[in-house]
Amino acid sequence: MKIVKKYGKVIGMSAAALAMTAALTIESSMAYFTTYVSAGGSEVIHLGTQTKIHEEVENMVKHIRIENTSDNDCFVRVKVMWGTTFLDVKVTDADGSGNWYDGGDGYWYYKPVLRARELTSVLDAKIELPENFDKDSFDVIVFHECIPAVYDDNGNPDWKLSLNAVGEGVD
């Protein structure tokens, strides 16, 4: 009790000084938490690639072309699938240029880089039906995929670098 009497005035004055300091700084700290700045304007950034498939069927041959609709170069691959065991589909590089090749994994790969706003050469899927088979009772589905083309240090496009860039494993 003696300590409170002896130091009571000092404790009271210290508490009052602390309260006044807190009261003076509260306004500036509120301004800090409520101030904001808005920004205007925008810039469109195109990342990645997009492609569009073009398919025509003529005399039981599906002609397939892929269009790069983006502003970036890309690599393209295509997979042709059908749902019936009676159907046989032969996929070939239509013009024999060697631009399309069978990757051995069910996909056909387009060897050159597909430049922005360009089309691939034609890939043909020849549909062979058994006799007396209804031509309207089957589907041949074409899946296509693209990844951005990545170039090596010498400026050459590289599938493996592109696959690593999008997180695909490469052997």
Describe this structure in words.
The chain has 171 residues and is of the alpha+beta class. Helix content is 23%, strand content 33%. The strands form two sheets. The protein has a four-stranded antiparallel beta sheet, with no helix packed on it. The longest helix has 33 residues, at 2-34. It is elongated, with a radius of gyration of 34 Å. It starts with a helix and ends in a 6-residue tail after the last helix.
What key attributes describe this structure?
about 170 residues, four-stranded antiparallel sheet, about 25% helix, about 35% strand
Q: What's the helix and strand layout?
A:
Elements: H1 2-34, E1 51-58, E2 61-68, E3 74-82, E4 88-93, E5 100-102, E6 108-114, E7 123-128, E8 140-148, H2 159-165
Antiparallel strand pairs: 1-2, 2-7, 3-6, 3-8, 4-7, 5-6
- What class, by secondary structure content? alpha+beta
Distance between the termini: 82 Å
Largest sheet: 4 strands, antiparallel
Q: What percentage of residues falls in helices of 4 or more residues?
A: 10-25%
The general outline is: elongated
Low-confidence stretches: none
Integer average pLDDT: 84
Strand content: 25-35%
SSE topology string: HEEEEEEEEH
- Per DSSP E runs of 2 or more residues, the count of β-strands stands at 8
Rg on CA atoms, Å = 34 Å
The total count of helices amounts to 2
Strand order of the largest sheet: 1-2-7-4
